[in-house]
C-alpha cells in the first residue's frame, strides 16, 4: 500500500535537505481531525535556520509538490504544516488492499531475515501459576503474533523455572511421604503442601536439610532416581500449566528452562574470569557494577559454589546468540525484576559477544494486577488461581447470555470466547508498565473499552452481511459513495492498521493495538448509527456493505493478533 507519510517525508526532505528518516520522526498525527491527517511541526528547525517556525512552514509549503490524488490540501497553521489526505484515493487504495489480502491484510515482509526471540510466561515448576504469569503469557503471545505477522522469524521461549535447591527438598519430601499426596489430581497444590512440610522439618532438623542438599547435588550429577522424580514434578506441573495455555490458545517453540543451562554455566564463569571483572567477595564470585550506575553487584557464584538465577540467564544469552543469531531477545517479565535484567544485560557485555547481541536485549516490564472484586479478591488474602479466574470469566459470561439471549446457538463456545477474550484484552489494554486493577464489572462491560465490546461490534458487522445476503466485490462498488464523515473516519483508521502494528513493536506496547481496535469499533458504531446501510439506493448500499465487511475483517485480524477469538453471536 502507498505510504502517505513516506511521500510527505520525501517531499519535506527535498525541500529542507534533512534526511527523510529524520523528518518521519517529526511528523505527527494531529489529535484533532480539523488539523489534517498529518502535521509537520517546524519548531524543531527554527533554531538551526534562525527563522520563525511560521515562516519556515510557509517556505517549505511553497516548495513542496505532492500529487493531489494523495494530499488534497496543505495548510500552514502556527508553526505547523497540516496535510489533508484525499480520502477518495485513499478509500480505493485501502479497500483494494483489503480485497487482495483478505485475512492477511496488514501482514508484511518487513521483518524478513530478522530473528526475534520472545521469552514469555516462564512459570516455576511445582509452584502456583499466578496472575502475574497470566500477564506475561498474554502480552508475550501478542508480541509473538505481531512480529510473525510482520514477517519476522519469531521464536517463542518459555524459560521455565525448573532449577534450584528447592528441588532437593521436594525430592526429600516425596521420598518420605510421596504416597500421602494426590499429585496426579492436584499437582501444584499438593506439591506446595509437601514443600511446606519438608521445609518446616528442615528448620527443625539439620540432618534433613543435609539430605535435601545431597539430593540436589545428586540431581545435578544426573542421579537416576532424583532425575526421575524431578521429571515427574516437571511433567505434572506442565500438564497443569497447559490447561491454562490451551484455554488461552498460547503456544511456544521452546520450553528450554533454567535447568537446560545447568551444564552451560562453566563457560560463563570462564568468560567472566577472562574479562577480569569477576571478583571474590566474602567467598562468592561477583561482578561489581558500581561504575555502571548499578549499586548491587551481580552474584555469579554463591559461597557454596552453586550458580545463580543470573548465571543461568547469562548462559541462556550465550546459547541464544549462537543458536538463533537473534536480532532482538525480548523478555516479558514484571518490573519487580528490573534490577535483575539491568545487571544481567550489563554483565552480558563482558561475555565477548558481538555488540549486536547485547544491543538486542530488551526487557519489556509490566505492572502488577490486583483483583478487586468477587470471591478471588486479593484483599481477602487469597492467591488468585489463573485457571479459576478464566473459568469464572466464562461462567459469568454464561450468566449474562442466559439473561439476555437465552436462545443463542453455540452458547458454550461463545461464552468461552467472550470470557477468555475479556480477560486477555484486559491484560493488554493499559500501558504495560502500569499496575492495574482487575475488576469484573469493567472487564465484562459489553459497552466499555473491552474485548467483549470489540467482539460485539464484530458480530454486528457479521449480522449486517448476513441480512444483506451478499457481499459485493470491490469492482462492483462505487467508492465515491463513501463520502460521509463516518465512512471517511473508518477508511483512515483501516489505513492505519499496518502502521499501528509497526508502532506496537517499535514502542514495545501492545496497548496501542488494543486501543486501535476500540477506535475502529467505535467508528463503525457511529457509522452504523448515522447511516442506513440496508434499504439505501443500491450503489450506496453496496459501498456500505463493503465497508462493513472491511471493518469486520480488520477487527477479526487485530483481535486474533492479541489472542482473542471472535464469537459468532452475542
Ligand atoms: N521464573 C521466573 C518467575 O516466575 C521468571 C523468569 C523470567 N525470565 C528470565 N529469563 N529470567 O518469576
In words, what does this structure look like?
With 570 residues, the chain is an alpha/beta fold. It folds into three domains: 4-85, Gyrase A, domain 2 (2-Layer Sandwich), CATH 3.30.1360; 115-273 and 311-370, Rossmann fold (3-Layer(aba) Sandwich); 386-562, Isoleucyl-tRNA Synthetase, Domain 1. Helix content is 55%, strand content 10%. A four-stranded parallel sheet has the order 5-4-9-10, sandwiched between helices. A hairpin with a 2-residue loop joins strand 2 and strand 3. Helix 5 (87-101) packs across helix 19 (485-495) and helix 18 (451-468) packs across helix 21. The longest helix is centred in the middle third of the chain and has 25 residues, at 224-248. The two termini are 34 Å apart. Bound molecules: arginine. Arginine binds at residues 119, 122-124, 159, 161, 313, 331, 333.
Amino acid at each position: 500500500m502507498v505510504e502517505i507519510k513516506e511521500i510527505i517525508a520525501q517531499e519535506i526532505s527535498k525541500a529542507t535537505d534533512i534526511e527523510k528518516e529524520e523528518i518521519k520522526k517529526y511528523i505527527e498525527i494531529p489529535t484533532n481531525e480539523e488539523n489534517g491527517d498529518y502535521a509537520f511541526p517546524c519548531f524543531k528547525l527554527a533554531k538551526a535556520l534562525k527563522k520563525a517556525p511560521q515562516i519556515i512552514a510557509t517556505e517549505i509549503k511553497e516548495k513542496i509538490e505532492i500529487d493531489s490524488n494523495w494530499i488534497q490540501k496543505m495548510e500552514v497553521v502556527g508553526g505547523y504544516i497540516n496535510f489533508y489526505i484525499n480520502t477518495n484515493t485513499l478509500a480505493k487504495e485501502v479497500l483494494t488492499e483489503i480485497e487482495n489480502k483478505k485475512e492477511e491484510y496488514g501482514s508484511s515482509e518487513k521483518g524478513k531475515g530478522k530473528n526475534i526471540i520472545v521469552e514469555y510466561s516462564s512459570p516455576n515448576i511445582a509452584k502456583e501459576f499466578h496472575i502475574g504469569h497470566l500477564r506475561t503469557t498474554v502480552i508475550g503471545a501478542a508480541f509473538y503474533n505481531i512480529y510473525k505477522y510482520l514477517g519476522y522469524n519469531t521464536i517463542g521461549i518459555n524459560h521455565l523455572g525448573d532449577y534450584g535447591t528447592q528441588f532437593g527438598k521436594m525430592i526429600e519430601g516425596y521420598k518420605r511421604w510421596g504416597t500421602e499426596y494426590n499429585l496426579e489430581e492436584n499437582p501444584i497444590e499438593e506439591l506446595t503442601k509437601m514443600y511446606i512440610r519438608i521445609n518446616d522439618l528442615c528448620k527443625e532438623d539439620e540432618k534433613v536439610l543435609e539430605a535435601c542438599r545431597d539430593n540436589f547435588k545428586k540431581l545435578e550429577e544426573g542421579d537416576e532416581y532424583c532425575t526421575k522424580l524431578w521429571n515427574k514434578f516437571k511433567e505434572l506441573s506442565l500438564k497443569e500449566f497447559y490447561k491454562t495455555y490451551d484455554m488461552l490458545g498460547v503456544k511456544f517453540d521452546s520450553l528450554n528452562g533454567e535447568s537446560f543451562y545447568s551444564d552451560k554455566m562453566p563457560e560463563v564463569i570462564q568468560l567472566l574470569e577472562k574479562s577480569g571483572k569477576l571478583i571474590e567477595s566474602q567467598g562468592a564470585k561477583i561482578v561489581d557494577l558500581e561504575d555502571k550506575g548499578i549499586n548491587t553487584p551481580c552474584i555469579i557464584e554463591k559461597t557454596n559454589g552453586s550458580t545463580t538465577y543470573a548465571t543461568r540467564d547469562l548462559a541462556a544469552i550465550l546459547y541464544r546468540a549462537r543458536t538463533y543469531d537473534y536480532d532482538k531477545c525480548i523478555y516479558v517479565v514484571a518490573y519487580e525484576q528490573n534490577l535483575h535484567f539491568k545487571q544481567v544485560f550489563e554483565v552480558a557485555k563482558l561475555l565477548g559477544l558481538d555488540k549486536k547481541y547485547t544491543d538486542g536485549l530488551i526487557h519489556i516490564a509490566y505492572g502488577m494486577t490486583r483483583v478487586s472484586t468477587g470471591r478471588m479478591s486479593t484483599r481477602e488474602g487469597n492467591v488468585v488461581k489463573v485457571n479459576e479466574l478464566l473459568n469464572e470469566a466464562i461462567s459469568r459470561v454464561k450468566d449474562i447470555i442466559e439473561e439476555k439471549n437465552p436462545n443463542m446457538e453455540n452458547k458454550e463456545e461463545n461464552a468461552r470466547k467472550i470470557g477468555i477474550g475479556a480477560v486477555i484484552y484486559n491484560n493488554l489494554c493499559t500501558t504495560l508498565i502500569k499496575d492495574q486493577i482487575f475488576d469484573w464489572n469493567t472487564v465484562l462491560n459489553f459497552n466499555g473499552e473491552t474485548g467483549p465490546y470489540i467482539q460485539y461490534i464484530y458480530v454486528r458487522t457479521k449480522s449486517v452481511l448476513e441480512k444483506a445476503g451478499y457481499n459485493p466485490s470491490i469492482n462492483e462498488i462505487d467508492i465515491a459513495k463513501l463520502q460521509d464523515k463516518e465512512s471517511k473516519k473508518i477508511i483512515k483508521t483501516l489505513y492505519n492498521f499496518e502502521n499501528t502494528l509497526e508502532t506496537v513493536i517499535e514502542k514495545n506496547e501492545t496497548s496501542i493495538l488494543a486501543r486501535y481496535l476500540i477506535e475502529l469499533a467505535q467508528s463503525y458504531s457511529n457509522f452504523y448509527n448515522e447511516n442506513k446501510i440496508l434499504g439505501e439506493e443500491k450503489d450506496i448500499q453496496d459501498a456500505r456493505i463493503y465497508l462493513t465487511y472491511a471493518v469486520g475483517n480488520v477487527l477479526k485480524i487485530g483481535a486474533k493478533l492479541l489472542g482473542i477469538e471472535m464469537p459468532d453471536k452475542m
